[in-house]
Amino acid sequence: TWTTGNVIDEQVARVREQIGEGTAICALSGGVDSAVAAALVQRAIGDRLTCVYVDHGLMRQDESVQIEKAFGESTGGARLVVVDAEQQFLDALAGVTDPETKRKIIGREFIRVFEKAQADILREQGVLEAEGDGSLETTENDATAFLVQGTLYPDVVESGGGEGAANIKSHHNVGGLPEDLSFELVEPLRTLFKDEVRAVGSELGLPDEIVWRQPFPGPGLGIRIIGEVTKDRLDVLRRADAIAREELTAAGLDRDIWQCPVVLLADVRSVGVQGDGRTYGHPIVLRPVTSDDAMTADWAQVPYEVLGRISTRITNQVPEINRVVLDVTSKPPGTIEWE
Ligand code: XMP
Q1: Both 72 and 196 in a single domain?
Q2: Using a 6 Å cutoff on CB, does residue 336 contact ligand 1?
Q3: Could you state a single Gene Ontology molecular function term (predicted)?
Q4: Could you give the C-alpha distances from 241 to 76, 208, 231, in angstroms and in order?
């Protein structure tokens, strides 16, 4: 019979067998899948697992700190390397407005940062040659490097099909590893669905903030600023987004809605009046949706009082924003994210 306890025991045993005395690396995104995969592998091999969290500077307010904290609390022992790559991503995104170009740049920079972090770790562990010309040569002892991924059953099925959403937007993912490295994938969630992963995560003691975290796109706020991504614009969006999330949480709506992107129309301005004066600020879009699997979605009917509180607070507390608008488009025809 299927119980979370059985799944955990079985997967821990499998991972132990697969990795043996080796070491493994896992890229953490802050989402539930990679966190549960890491926690399972950590149970199997302890501190021979190193997790890498790439902070691309496109996360929401306090999010990176929360991810670090939740990770520390839930995985007693696994090592976490946090790479601060904000400036690298901002530089790479300067002047870029096209959505697909943004996605490709973010995906590319992510892989660069992750590869470098990974090479440093492998060198430290003696899997790679000490220094040298920068190329990734494995040492003579031929140790295998293991890479943990939180691939779920639907991901396996979808990549088998090889069509659909991937053609609409380029989803960023860990990929493009150097070919001369003999990486072996460890995917302890390959047979599970999302709700099962959540159950396993709870059983493993992961905090609710991680287990029930709503989906958040890999490219982060970079695809929620319509126009060029800059530090100032990110800060404005972060403040507005934090207010929206706080009010939705306070209203007890977190598990009723799938997610609520908050989108800054950075290249649009409109006239307003705040205090005694005219303003010429930016609109922000609230995009609350309900969904089962993100393939289709409905706009969520958030109560008017809650929308009203969000609007009042954002326009009072974020001076750059003088208008809050609601997106009432289903998917299709609109996608969930604006880019
Ligand atoms: P769309 O906008 O395609 O989004 O309707 C569907 C779901 O996927 C999330 N999303 C992403 N997740 N990397 C991710 O990990 C991405 O590049 C990405 N783009 C969109 C989106 O938040 C929604 O839940």
Answers
A1: yes
A2: yes
A3: GMP synthase (glutamine-hydrolyzing) activity
A4: 31, 20, 15
Ligand 1 centroid–CA 294 distance in Å is 8
182 is in an annotated binding site: no
| CA of residue 220 to ligand 1 center, whole Å | 9
CB of 30 closer than 6 angstroms to any ligand 1 atom: no
> Could you read off the pLDDT of 39-84 as tens digits, one per residue?
999 999 998 999 999 999 999 999 999 888 877 777 666 789 999 9
Q: Is 302 annotated as ligand-binding?
A: no
The domain boundary residue, chosen from 211, 232, 264: 211
CATH, residue 124: 3.40.50.620
Number of domains in the chain: 2
Give yes or no: residues 33 and 107 share one domain: yes
Going by alpha carbons, the residue nearest to atom 24 of ligand 1 is 215
Atom of ligand 1 minimally distant from the CA of 223: 19
78-93 tens-digit pLDDT: 789 999 999 999 999 9
| Atom of ligand 1 lying closest to residue 261 CA | 22
Is 34 annotated in a binding site? The answer is yes
Containing domain of residue 183, as a range? 4-211
Chain-wide mean pLDDT for the chain?
A: 89
